[in-house]
Design goal:
7-stranded parallel sheet, alpha/beta
Amino acid sequence: MCRRIFAKSHNFDKITSNSLEGDNLQYIDDSLKGKRILITGGAGFIGSNLALYFQKHHKDAEVVVFDSFRNETRWDNGNLKSLGHFKNLLDFRGEVIVGDITNKEDLSRLEERKFDYIFHQAAISDTTVQNQEAVLRANVNAYKDLLDLCVRQHSSMIYASSAGVYGNTPAPNSINSGEIPENVYGFSKLMMDHLTFKYLKNFPFLNIVGLRYFNVYGENELYKGKTASMILQLALQALKFKKVRLFKMGEQKRDFVYIQDVIAANVKAMKAKKSGVYNVGSGKARSYNDILDCLKVDLGEFEVEYIENPYKFFQAHTEANIILTEKFLDYQPRFSLEVGIKNYLSQIKAIHNDNLWDEVIGNNA
Ligand SMILES: NC(=O)c1ccc[n+]([C@@H]2O[C@H](COP(=O)([O-])OP(=O)(O)OC[C@H]3O[C@@H](n4cnc5c(N)ncnc54)[C@H](O)[C@@H]3O)[C@@H](O)[C@H]2O)c1
């Protein structure tokens, strides 16, 4: 039986398990008419959801996607170097620019127009990449170049930071506390946050909001392949093999946050009461066993095999303290794990039925 644990302090219980209410929500009153919005990493999971949100709810805004898209190059861990995919943007009607944020010539294509808002999602998002130079170049240096663009164009910057900055610090995770990353990815995001405060001090006219996403899951993450959320991977194992594998004993906890809540946080950040860095999670830690309980409600029983965890570094518990996000961004997570998974399952079943996962993992997609 799926455990229904709705946090009273959040609005989870406003959304019933059959509701897709979030799909039709416009998160701010402003129509954004005539505004120009740049989304770096717009062919990826979160960026494409953002692009499609603006297209649907702010029709008079101009949206430009800048992304390097995938090519054949890989990291030592075998994963593709960039994970963007044109299929995430099949319904997108705005302009697409292919470019690398670490390449000044590519970035110069952005100079000729004035963006009102930059949503910076492009990054090496694979947390297992060990190449420190590459991660810092793509995540930190390129962010600085984009901040300089904001200074020149007076654009507002909303960028993706990460819960990775907290490393193994005991939950709940709060801004300005326990920021001790355990890998270069987390370090790169922390350096982006420090750069943010430096720019806010030196250029007081700038609006900059950093969003430390926790574990995001939801529609359009297929093309992340092995770096996609455990929710997608466990659901597909259950559908295909009637059996899933979890690290012993499945009680490690994470703050899993549904994509629609992440999009709401980004959009509300456009009207932030204060620039700064904020946590974006559900505000509630849930275990991997909880995910299985939720899946079983819809998919029926399946077997669970608990295996030894081979990783030296594996967070035991993350949970976002979202008090500041609620106060300054007016952010309220709306989706419990139960409802987020239920919403997402129709796309997961389609992925399974069309054998898309095998195509992505076999690198034919
Ligand atoms: N998904 C999560 O759970 C999560 C959690 C914390 C933080 N984040 C951050 O959120 C952002 C978006 O993540 P995502 O999950 O959508 O990942 P993603 O990999 O699907 O999206 C990143 C996009 O950036 C593009 N990109 C990568 N390197 C680039 C470069 N040099 N130039 C131009 N484009 C480039 C990729 O092609 C891809 O489309 C990233 O900054 C990531 O670090 C994600």
